[in-house]
Amino acid sequence: MMNCQQATRLLSDAQESELSLKNRATLKFHVMMCSGCRNFAEQMGTLREIAREYVKGSDAQGSSNPANFSDGERE
Amino acid sequence: MLKFATIQLRDEALAEDAVQEALIGALKNAGSFNRRSALKTWVFAILKNKITDILRKGQRLVEAGRPYQDDEEDGLETLFDTKGFWQVDERPLSWSQPMESVKTDHFWRVFDTCLNGLPESQARLFMMREFLELESAEICETLNITTSNLHVMLYRARLRLRECLENRWFSEGEKP
């Protein structure tokens, strides 16, 4: 069976390009059995979403300019 | 922004120029923005383009072959046992409603801390890929590194980043 180190590596690589059929199959099997890697898989997508949000709101955080226009970006 | 530019360009003066130009470019058209957040997004977009341009033109800034060694000393191997399975206390937990977090300033401070905790080359590649949204192939070409080199560095960055976020944020319970 594929181990978690190999599985997480593939889950990261899958963010870059499509995996081979064989890799996808063994990965799917591993992830079904392993809650840690299942969570890891979900978090790969989350990290990417967080990065998008980071760029969107870049350095908006922490600035408390009283002349704020209404800022609906993170709502 | 400056920090971001500096890490990407590895040159403070160059980074300052890029940020300044981006700001000037944005201010010229500031009248057309009625939302501050939209303006910021836009400045950042300009900055991204500038950095990307500079990186594309300035390939020689990076000495080929030197900077992106796989760093085996970063302790990530200890996340797994000798057979390569998660150590019991390192096994990733489920994050509840992660995208709710991005609404809070506190989360972003934690995120910055975690990002700053990455080895510089990992942080740089992660930001190129995820913030500048460059494709893998383009990053490899620009920096003259191999795909497998890039992928292993991104893997390490993600392993470390998710661990840090989990320890410092998601397992602490979501802060108000």
Can you give keywords for this protein?
heterodimer, A: 75 residues, mainly alpha, 3 helices, disordered C terminus, B: 176 residues, Arc Repressor Mutant, subunit A
Quick synopsis:
With 75 residues, chain A is mainly α. Chain A has helices at residues 4-13, 21-33, 35-56. Chain A has 3 helices and no strands.
Commentary on this structure:
The complex is a heterodimer of chains A (75) and B (176). Chain A has 75 residues and is an all-alpha fold. Chain A has one domain. Chain A has helices spanning 4-13, 21-33, 35-56. Chain B is mostly helical and 176 residues long. Chain B has two domains: 1-61, no CATH class; 66-176, Arc Repressor Mutant, subunit A. In chain B, 60% of the residues lie in helices and 0% in strands. Chain B contains eight helices and no strands. At the A-B interface, α1 and α3 of A face α3, α4, α5 and α8 of B.
Cα(first) to Cα(last) distance of chain B is 26 Å
Q: Ends of chain A: how far apart?
A: 44 Å
Gross morphology of chain A is elongated
Classify the helix fraction of chain B into a percent range. Answer: 55-70%
Instruction: Quickly count the helices of chain A.
Output: 3
Count every beta strand of chain A, where a strand is a DSSP E run of 2 or more residues.
Answer: 0
Spans of at least 5 consecutive residues with low confidence of chain A: 59-75
N-to-C series of helices and strands of chain B: HHHHHHHH
Number of DSSP helices of chain B? Answer: 8
Q: Characterize the main sheet of chain B.
A: none
Shape of chain B: globular
Structural class of chain A: mainly alpha
**Mean of residue pLDDT of chain A?**
80
Write the topology of this structure.
The complex is a heterodimer of chains A (75) and B (176).
Chain A: H1 4-13, H2 21-33, H3 35-56
Helix pairs in contact in A: 1-2, 1-3, 2-3
Chain B: H1 2-9, H2 12-28, H3 36-57, H4 98-101, H5 105-116, H6 120-130, H7 136-143, H8 147-170
Helix pairs in contact in B: 1-2, 2-3, 5-8, 6-8
